[in-house]
């Protein structure tokens, strides 16, 4: 299994790009509609995202869960940013339920809102440019300790350092088990040069340095996002100590493997396009 993406939409898109080499790869690794279950009965420092730990309620109030089995972030009260490979394409779409305001997906106080419309990144064809916006049927109320917006970086100045990631996805490569409780981890920036070496061009699935940003423990592995975390934000603090989105969980070779960092959509590259698309939604 080289590159693992989870939606059948993506599989179709990849096929459509004519990149024959990609078809040999495993593209769907868990049911998008599998109900999240709590596979984490043992509290404590057990490594889990992969190699992370449980997030506290209110710690990442911008995190949302999408019903097709992806993550996302609140860009505006009625707009969620996610990965293009998580959605079915641009147009009216009432099929997605967005859960906000809760780390525990079964929290009775969780806020659930339906989608209204989706916009996929211009030019997205199954590789890179992996971002999309979801317009919600109604705005999410901003409640202290529950919900907040996550601004996106508009400069490359924050494309370095150590990032935060969070999600309800697998805690282990291949587990196919979505989590009931949000998990978090810290992943260091991996340079374009090192990421290029990690993902050489051949046979066709590779890293696009201008459009993607890599993170993880390059040598040791052990910490990463994984299946079901896609679309969620990679973030860090800005100079004023405020959370800022720098990436979107996109893909990787397995999860948390040594020498195989996580690959994220480079938000700084698309900041203008994202803002423009959001204004038009
Ligand atoms: N494509 C995966 C998803 O749909 C995300 C994979 C992230 N992988 C990684 N090794 N960082 O959930």
Shape: globular
Strand content: 25-35%
N→C terminal distance:
37 Å
The computed structural class is alpha+beta
Low-confidence stretches: 1-48
Task: Give your account of this protein's structure.
Helix content is 11%, strand content 27%. With 281 residues, it is α+β, with helices and mostly antiparallel strands. The protein folds into 2 domains: 143 residues, Thrombin, subunit H (Beta Barrel); 97 residues, Trypsin-like serine proteases (Thrombin, subunit H), CATH 2.40.10.10. The strands form 2 sheets. The chain has a 6-stranded antiparallel beta barrel. The N and C termini lie far apart (37 Å). The N terminus is likely disordered. The structure holds arginine. The site of arginine has 16 residues, from strand 13. InterPro entries: Peptidase_S1_PA, Peptidase_S1_PA_chymotrypsin, Peptidase_S1A, Trypsin_dom, TRYPSIN_HIS, TRYPSIN_SER. It comes from Streptomyces monticola. Keywords: Disulfide bond, Hydrolase, Protease, Serine protease, Signal.
């Amino acid at each position: 299994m080289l590159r693992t993406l989870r939606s059948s939409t993506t599989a179709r898109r990849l096929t459509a790009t004519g990149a024959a080499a990609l078809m040999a790869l495993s593209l769907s690794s868990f049911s998008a509609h599998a109900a999240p279950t709590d596979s984490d009965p043992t509290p404590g420092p057990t490594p889990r995202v992969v190699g992370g730990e449980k997030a506290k309620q209110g710690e990442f109030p911008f995190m949302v869960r999408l019903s097709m089995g992806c993550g996302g972030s609140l860009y505006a009260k009625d707009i969620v940013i996610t990965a293009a490979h998580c959605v079915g394409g641009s147009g009216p779409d009432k099929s997605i339920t967005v859960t906000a305001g809760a780390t525990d997906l079964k929290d009775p106080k969780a806020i659930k809102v339906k989608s209204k419309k989706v916009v996929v990144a211009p030019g997205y064809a199954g590789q890179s440019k992996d971002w999309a916006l979801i317009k919600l049927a109604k705005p999410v109320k901003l409640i202290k300790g529950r919900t907040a917006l996550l601004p996106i970086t508009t400069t490359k100045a924050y494309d370095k350092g150590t990032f935060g990631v969070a999600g309800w996805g697998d805690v282990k490569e291949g587990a196919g088990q979505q989590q009931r409780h949000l998990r978090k981890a810290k992943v260091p920036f991996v340079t374009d040069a090192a990421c290029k070496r990690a993902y050489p061009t051949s046979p066709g699935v590779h890293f696009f340095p201008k459009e993607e940003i890599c993170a993880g423990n390059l040598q040791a592995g052990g910490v990463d996002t994984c299946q079901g975390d896609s679309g969620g934000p990679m973030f860090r603090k800005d100079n004023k100590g405020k959370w800022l989105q720098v990436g979107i969980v996109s893909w990787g070779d397995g999860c948390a493997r040594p020498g195989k960092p996580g690959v994220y959509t480079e938000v700084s590259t698309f900041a203008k396009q994202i803002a423009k698309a959001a204004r038009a939604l």
